[in-house]
Amino acid sequence: MTSKSTFRQVSVLPGVWPSPGLLDALAPMSDKPVLRLTEWPPAAASVRQSYADTDALLAGWKDSLDADHMRQLPALRYVGLRATTTEHIDLEYANRHGITVAPIYGYGDTGTVEFVIEQLLGHARHTTKDSSPGELAGRRLGLIGFGSVARSVGQVGMALGMDVVFHTPTRRPTAAGEPRWAPLAEVLGSADFLAFHSPAYRHVVTLDELRLIPPTALVVITTLGLPMAETALCAWQSAREGRTVMDLCAAHAVSDDTIRLPGVEVHDFYAARTKESVKRAEAQLVENLASALGQ
Fold first, then answer.
1. Architecture of 10-107+275-292 per CATH?
2. C-alpha span between 76 and 84 (Å, rounded)
């Protein structure tokens, strides 16, 4: 993108949650001291003046970068995302103005997979009708979506003896010994355990489809935003006895009334955010920034 050895001004938005180590690693790539914003958009005039010189911006998945925001940065040439999704970025504006947008991938997969498996094991061990511990082996795990996280969840589930089926909008052929693609109605209607791994901020099931899920099934949601309308979640959960477990990624915009519904359980952390994933994410941010400088 550039042959310069540094950017003029590297700025970091609040959603990056930078560690001191990240700020230290960014310093040699910025002519001016790295600007860490504590609010977005910046309110203080002095901060806005410094921010206006930004040509490299790091943002998190909660930080919105629409055309109006980017228009305030005439020097902007690079946006590094501490996120996989580009949902909150106006990519059309960025492309028109030659702004490189660089997401990162895979950094939080392990933590998310472990969180989902932890929920399945805990549910099997502690929620049997006669109070004796149960097993996952022989139970059916349904996966909505089949990206890298869902594939890993499916592999662990099969290693534990589970029957694993998944649904994606397009049918996918699979080999023996792998999770099997199935129509949505089958995956929802036959699952003892169901985990959503669908695209960020996309509603992929309706209320009528949710009602296909067995009433006692455990449902785990770690998507960015709910994979169904909140009204549909409320109506469905209110009429069943099973549990719906979410991390803060799924629940970040959910109302308190929904969180207080019987059976809804929100864990007060982001499944993907572990000490190891933070190191991986920040290393990718720095590597992407260095690549943009041609280093």
1. 3-Layer(aba) Sandwich (3.40)
2. 20
CB–CB of 60/200 below 8 Å?
no
Instruction: Give the domain ranges of the chain.
Output: 10-107+275-292, 109-266
Please, which residues have CB within 8 angstroms of residue 228's CB and are 6 or more apart in sequence? Answer: 203, 204, 205, 206, 207, 210, 236
Tell me the pLDDT of the chain averaged across its residues: 94
CATH of region 109-266, choose from 1.20.140.10, 3.40.50.150, 3.40.50.720, 1.20.1060.10: 3.40.50.720
| Contact yes or no for 56/10 (Cβ under 8 A) | yes
40-94 confidence digits (pLDDT tens): 877 776 677 778 899 999 999 989 999 999 998 999 999 999 999 999 999 999 9
**Measured distance CA(200)–CA(121) in Å, rounded:** 26
End-to-end alpha-carbon separation of the chain, Å?
11
Beta strand pairing call for 244-246 and 35-36? unpaired
From CA 51, how far away is CA 57, in angstroms rounded?
Answer: 10
Could you read off the pLDDT of 188-236 as tens digits, one per residue? 999 999 999 999 999 999 999 999 999 999 999 999 999 999 999 999 9
- Distant-in-sequence contacts of 131-137, Cβ < 8 A, 24+ apart: 135/161, 136/160, 136/161, 136/162, 136/193, 137/161, 137/162
pLDDT tens by residue, 230-259: 999 999 999 999 999 999 999 999 999 999
Give the separation between CA 269 and CA 31, rounded to whole angstroms: 35
**Cis (ω within 30 of 0) for the bond into 41?**
yes
**Pairing relation of β-strands 10-12 and 35-36?**
parallel
